[in-house]
Amino acid sequence: MKKRERVIGAIKREPVDKIPSGFSLHFPAGEAKGEKAVDAHIRFFEETDTDIIKIMNENLVPRVSGVKEPEDFDKIPEISMEDEFMKAQVELTREILKRCDPDSFSLGTLHGIVASSVHPFEADGIEYLDARKLVLASLRKNEKPVLAAFDRITEGMCRLAKTYVELGVDGIYYAALGGEADLLTDEEHEQWFKPYDLKIMRAIKDAGGYCFLHICKDGLNMERYRDYASLADVVNWGVYEAPFSLEDGKKLFPGKTIMGGLKNRSGVLIDGTRGELSAAVKEASEIVGRTGFILGADCTLPTEIPYERVRMAVDAAREL
Fold it and tell me: Which of 18, 65, 221, 276 is the 20 to 30 Å CA partner of 98?
């Protein structure tokens, strides 16, 4: 089987000749955008030989300064495909698809409503957690202007989803954050974030792309994502970060293909022997099952990881 066939077979939970794999990382700042980003992606794909090629997205919703009150969210404008950060991501995707292995399965990266609503403040020098707290405090004080900004952001992300598929990607890796149990209640997540996540995921499906649901951050209430499964083809989450085991995931997302199995920032993928890594891959495949499984990690790998480490994991999956 070719790589793309293998991944689609795994998505459909059909027998495959070898277990497919997909890993990604954030490239160094000097290789995160433009032509250098294209070169960095191609080098990573060629040296790791992953079945899935995931196109990263560092072209984020632009900085917005001076947000102190809920009404300041009016400063976040509508998002169109003519915005420079959207055009840059489209060009990056187009150029990578021109140069990558056509037999691979391609994914575009799309940041969900939680990430996309904090990026304007992260770009202004505020760390993720503080940006999250700023958004949540604003919602609790006066939700109307904040949710209006969410509407504008969501429409932009839906446009990006459609454009990705038109460019030729096979699927979209949808990063759904927001499950941190200590930051917001289940009711707040249900009211303020879930509708937007589901709208973007539905746009991915309507455009004809496979939807890879990614869930991360510490201390997650994974139950919040149970209903997301109907719009997901593949689910990937922070098994060790949440924490939420592969066994638990199989119960929460029955009948869905699971991608993961390895820690992304520590453990055998980072510093284990070849034998230890092979054993960990084998264990994950036995838990999930040989069908409906794509080897991956909890989230992005360390930028500095030697690519031969990733190749070892890829080969270990293919040897099972």
Answer: 18
